[in-house]
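User: Okay, second chain of the day. Same drill as before: sequence in, structure tokens out.
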Amino acid sequence: MLKKRIASFKYAFNGIALLIKTQANTRFHLLAGALVIVVAWYLEVSALEWAILALTIGSVVAAEGFNTALEFLTDLVSPDYHELAGKTKDVAAGAVLIMAFAAIAVAACIFGPKIVALGR
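Assistant: Same drill. Structure tokens below.
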């Protein structure tokens, strides 16, 4: 039982490594997330704001993971071009973009007032 649990973590970490190695957008989102962490530390955000930022960063990276998994699966089941395969990939990519825009809105809500206050 314990060996199966440990193996499941190993597979999950392998998936994360694959996502980072193969997906430039994931690396971009991780870099953006790191920048957000630096800014949050500088602006001394509250514990609740840290939690919101952590969930937001994690959601964007997870969305990239779901998108990548769907792309891999779509390529497996439809190696030749098919209109529905293209639509599947487009919708999955669109979902990531929606999450990225939501993350920008979260950052604006948390950082905006703090940055404005710095100028006063």
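The longest helix spans residues 83-118.

User: Thanks, on to the next one.
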